[in-house]
Design a protein that fits this description.
alpha+beta; 318 residues; globular
Length: 318
Amino acid sequence: MSIDIIRVDDQWYVERDDRTATRIETAAATTGELLADRAAIDAAVAGEPAPVPTGRLQSPVTSPCRVVAQMTNYASHVRDSGMDPETVPLTFFRKTSHSISGPVDDIVRPPHVTLLDYEVEIGLVIGRDVAVGTQVTRENLADVVAALVIANDVSARDLQLPKTQFFEAKSYPTFTPVGPRLVLLEPGDLDRFTDLRLSLWVDGELRQDARVEGDMLYGPVEALQALTGFQPLAAGDLVLTGTPAGTALKAPPKPIEIIGSLLPPARKWKIFFSKQAKNPRYLQHGDVVELSVRTGDGAIDLGRQTTTVRFAEPEPRS
């Protein structure tokens, strides 16, 4: 059975249930250091539970770390994006780790961003240093992936699309809420990965809801096989595995897309964004965004993340 770990006021706890937890007596300041202190984790598992501490929940993935994400990795999302799942390659992009925030922290939209989108994702937390060229297989996957977390890959679509890049549009502070739980995997837990269901609500309205099985294109073994071909990884790094259908952004109908391709870029994007500005599904000030990832029987449950969207005020001109 997996071990659920939470982080409160820079202290680590094994969560027993909604009301009780046991403090992990460790000097670990980072996720990587915690994963290396398995003796302390095991001692907490065997220890006496106490009331859950009342401090603020923090991201169980600490920064700095590498944050690597898979792009268009669910067939349903690929179709939403106007592409054919049969032709989509395995690709990655990077996010800065200063975009990581806690599971109850506000999502802050910068003043110059207008189209703020959400993406519920499963995060793989790397458990040890992995050199370039390491062969990741089904047999040794559990030796590489130590834990799972829930994450929201927040995106500024009005920056992402015309610049045809992801790094800036997904890397602002608070654009990667993570947690609440670091679900430390025990033998056999990864066999249930495809049973996980991802769900996201905005103000109580279910926007995203899909199981990994039958929708994810490239699973953890394929992703890490490709990634370690060119990218080293370290304990505590975070690999995001993509999002299913239901984001605010959707591709325009094919006839409109064809017409748009004939227009000058400036004109095309002006028309596109004027249409998108009328889409009420983009995140608005005060929206409450809730995420859940769990198996149907609750054997693996990454917890429920609840954040509120806040629009930052423009900087005063001097």
